[in-house]
Amino acid sequence: MTEEHDTSPEPTTSPSETGDGSHENTGNDSGHGVVRVLVGCGSLKRDEPTEARTLYTSGYFTKKRDFAELYGDDWFIVSAKHHVIDPETVIEPYDTSLTNMSADERRSWGEDASVELRALDWDHVDTVVVLMGQKYINPIRTTLETLPVRVLYPFDDTEGNGEQNKWLKNQVQRAKHTASGEKPSLSLTIDECDTGNQTALTNFS
């Protein structure tokens, strides 16, 4: 996975945490229903076991995490080593990346990750937002497109981490201007794709 080289630790407090550390899941009222976010992992990591949501230390991952916790009703991390992880699962640092895998290894990873994706409870989910690069999306794209939900790929219309960082920063800032106690609405301008439930997300209104 291509990551920006940001070695400075980022704040670990979730922007959607309540005072007691719990997370509010109030549902999204923007017409996209209940939103789940899938976040790609990061190459920069802490050097000790910790919850997956705080293991990855780059500013790029932190922005994706903030987006997921602000806009998502729930979210999961897609990892080169652990496949699909609940963000509160404690894991050890690792040095595995799809970038260093052969085509056969990526295919095998995709099969395992697809099994775990399908095993998630999708009955209450209406929309899934995919915040991952193509190396992580391609091995599981078929599975994503067969899920019983609308799938949004915001990074399809960006060129590299620079644009993605800027896009994420803008969306996080927008959400933080939401009135206290309210869930920010996922208000999207979208271009419908020709196939299935695949939707490319161009920008937030």
Protein model, in words:
This protein is of the alpha/beta class. It has one domain: Rossmann fold. It has six helices and nine strands. The protein has a seven-stranded mixed beta sheet with strand order 4-3-1-6-7-9-8. The protein has a two-stranded antiparallel ribbon with strand order 2-5. Strand 3 and strand 4 form a beta hairpin. Helix 2 crosses helix 6. The longest helix is centred in the middle third of the chain and has 17 residues. The two termini are 29 Å apart. The N terminus and C terminus are likely disordered.
CATH topology: Rossmann fold
Reported for the largest beta sheet, the result is: 7 strands, mixed
For the record, the CATH architecture stands as 3-Layer(aba) Sandwich
**What's the alpha carbon Rg, rounded to whole Å?**
16 Å
The CATH first-level class comes to: Alpha Beta
Instruction: Please tally the helical runs, counting DSSP H or I stretches of 4 or more residues.
Output: 6
Question: Please, how many domains?
Answer: 1
Distance between the termini: 29 Å
Poorly predicted tracts of residues: 1-27, 189-205
The mean pLDDT is 80
- Looking across the biggest beta sheet, what order are the strands in? 4-3-1-6-7-9-8
Structural class: alpha/beta
- Taken in chain order, the helices and strands follow as EEHHEEEHEHHEHEE
What overall form do the CA principal axes indicate? globular
Q: What is the share of helical residues?
A: 25-40%
The oligomeric state of the chains shown is: single chain
- Total beta-strand segments: 9
Strand content: 15-25%
